[in-house]
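Project outcomes to date are best conveyed with an example. Our students and postdoctoral researchers have been running inverse folding experiments weekly, and each run begins with a structure described purely in tokens. The record below, which covers 193 residues, was selected by the lab manager from last quarter's runs and is presented without edits.
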């Protein structure tokens, strides 16, 4: 399923500097819109395809390239591959113009990715990919970056990242200058509350 916003991305949220969605310091983009409807999804507010923040793809590219001291970019959602035309354009541009590594989270399963011609792009353009639906009956938050045991992490052959996956539950708490607090990652219910 593809959603067409022209040359704009429909974005739910951006964190220009996060430490828990991949190796090192990363620019993280949450896409708005997901039709995969995983039971137990924690990001249901990102299911709607109504426009939330429309950001031109050139503008997002500039924001990423001009963010200092990051090692990579992470895309998650929502479902990034519902906006795949602009996403693959953006990733190609980032790779041509920087050494930033690419981490893609998708709820699609491997066979669906193959069917929609995304698997070859993942292998050619991504350094890490987290693949598969979130399943609440397989929930395990002690795996790095993924929330249920059926999901997989792949490092394509050409990946520029080589790290050993850990059994950890990482949570990041961001306190802004106005004292608003955001909790990222897969926190236990107590911390989420
Ligand atoms: S793919 Fe992600 S955002 Fe979409 S329903 Fe599943 S967990 Fe939620």
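After processing, the design step wrote out the following sequence:
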């Amino acid at each position: 399923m593809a959603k067409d916003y022209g040359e704009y991305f429909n974005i739910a949220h951006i964190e220009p500097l996060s430490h828990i969605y991949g190796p090192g310091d990363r620019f993280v983009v949450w896409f708005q819109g997901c039709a995969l409807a995983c039971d137990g999804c924690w990001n249901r507010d990102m299911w709607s395809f109504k426009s939330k923040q429309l950001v031109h793809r050139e503008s997002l590219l500039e924001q990423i390239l001009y963010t200092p001291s990051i090692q990579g970019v992470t895309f998650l959602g929502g479902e990034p591959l519902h906006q795949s035309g602009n996403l693959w354009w953006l990733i190609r541009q980032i790779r041509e113009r920087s050494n930033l590594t690419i981490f893609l989270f998708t709820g699609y399963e491997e066979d669906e990715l193959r069917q929609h011609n995304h698997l070859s792009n993942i292998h050619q353009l991504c350094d890490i990919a987290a693949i598969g639906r979130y399943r609440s009956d397989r929930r395990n938050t002690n795996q790095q970056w993924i929330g249920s045991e059926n999901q997989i992490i792949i490092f394509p052959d050409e990946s520029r990242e080589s790290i050993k996956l850990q059994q950890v539950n990482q949570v990041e708490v961001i306190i802004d200058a106005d004292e608003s607090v955001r909790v990222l990652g897969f926190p236990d219910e107590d911390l989420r509350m």
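The first strand starts at residue 8 and ends at 18. The mean pLDDT is 90. The training component of this project remains on track.
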